Amino acid sequence: MPILKMLKIVTVIGMVLVTAQVGVGIAPSYSTDLETALRTSLFTGYEVLQRPMEQVPVTVSMNLITINSLDIKAQTLSTSRFFQLTWPDNRLEWNTNSSYDNLRFLFTTEKYAWAPKLVIENSVNDLEVFSDVNTLVRLNSAGTARWTPGGVFETSCEADITYYPLDTQTCSIVLTTWSYTSNEITLSFDDDPFILDNFSENGEWELLETSNTSESAGRSKSESYTYDRLYFTMKLRRRPLYHILNTIFPVILMSCLIVFVFKLPPESGERVGMSLTVLLAYAVYLTLITDNIPQTSLSASILSTYLTIILMLSTLSVIFTIVVLDIYFNHDDDEAPPDWLQKFTKIFLVNITCWKGEGCCRKGKVKPSNGSDSRIALVDLDNVKDAKTRINSPSRKVALTDDDRENKNPEDKIFSWKEVALILDRFFMYLFVFLVFTVTLVCLSILAKGGQQ
């Protein structure tokens, strides 16, 4: 008997202890049965189409992943991103029931829980309500729901290509409610509207800054209701290196070939061919690259002006090359240029080009005379008294001696036709270097100033 009494006492004490543990609210551990019981408790009688409250506050932030492309011609911006939407739903809270303390989160979809119906207003593909049954709605014990629908979105972006390829574009993504008015759903930004933790840089566009604004406005004059809108704005700047290397630099490089045409020796026989080849290649290349440049941009107008000037210079280089070759080859060695050409060469061309150290650079070399004139070959001098009279004589051709060409006084030096051709060659080269450099520098400075606007 004493043993039976002891057993009864122990049983009673155990029951009292279990009852005491339940009374103080010790929650059972997680199990699928426990979560099933919670889901049954929360969603029994739950109406998906019914708002959690009369006016639901929805906070929004955007997590930008990549900027895929900005199509200038189509005026569209393609981005990969997802939105983070948060709102309260008191029907789905369970923090007042200690039996479920070990269940901190539940996951469901918009099929079973209420979710705000939002659209991207400036979408170019479609204007559909956000709907993604594969994206879970995360619920915590306080009844706060968080939903993160995302994808690749194409939105309209009014691009300004005035300063292409040094342009800066501002594009916005407009998020708004579809059926719910401002009295039923209010949209506001989260504490961090733009989340860039997962952002990857684009090779063509640099993200300079982000901003956000909101408004509440009607969709038509006849409608008295207002709808909330959120504007996620991005300022993008084009990376110009690619376009400079593939568009501007080749054009400048080809324009330099015009100058080097005058460096080829006249005896090479390739000068006219090279001039025409450069001119043709320049025209073909320009036809190809102008198709890739927006025609309304400032750079298009600058490039068109630049190309027109360079093409004019290319044409002139062909003409000047023919003139130089004609002077060089179509006159005899014993034929002296006319007096006016001699003066023009001595006074202007020699000083500009510093021909063989004469003129502006330093005085010409003085060659000593040995007093002998054995090298002079004269033809029918008759009454000719000096060298100057011989040269200017229209009825005779006179061989020029070395003493005539290299006189002790540089101003009395007599230049042959070949020397005049070579001096003209150098003058044209210097002239084209100056013109090409000046035109290029002016066009680049205008383009750079435009890109800073």
Output mean pLDDT.
79
Cα(first) to Cα(last) distance is 104 Å
Oligomer state of the chains in this structure: single chain
Mass-distribution shape: rod-shaped
**Could you give a short account of the major beta sheet?**
7 strands, mixed
Q: Total helix count?
A: 9
Task: Describe this entry's structure for a reader.
With about 450 residues, this protein is an alpha+beta fold. It contains 9 helices and 11 strands. It has helices spanning about 1-25, 30-45, 240-260, 270-290, 300-330, 340-355, 385-390, 400-405, 415-450, and strands spanning about 55-70, 75-90, 105-110, 120, 135-140, 145, 150-155, 170-175, 185-195, 205-215, 225-240. Strands 1, 2, 3, 5, 6, 7 and 9 form a 7-stranded mixed sheet that branches. The protein has a 4-stranded antiparallel sheet with strand order 4-8-11-10, with no helix packed on it. β5 and β6 (about 145) form a beta hairpin. α3 (about 240-260) runs parallel beside α5, α5 (about 300-330) packs antiparallel against α9 (about 415-450) and α6 crosses α9. The model is unreliable at about 10-25 and about 370-400 (pLDDT under 50).
Task: Summarize the helices and strands and which ones pair or pack.
Elements: H1 2-23, H2 32-43, E1 56-71, E2 76-88, E3 105-108, E4 118-120, E5 137-140, E6 144-147, E7 150-156, E8 168-177, E9 185-195, E10 205-217, E11 227-238, H3 241-260, H4 271-290, H5 298-329, H6 339-353, H7 387-392, H8 402-405, H9 417-451
Parallel strand pairs: 1-9
Antiparallel strand pairs: 1-2, 2-6, 2-7, 3-5, 4-8, 5-6, 8-11, 10-11
Helix pairs in contact: 3-4, 3-5, 3-9, 4-5, 5-9, 6-9
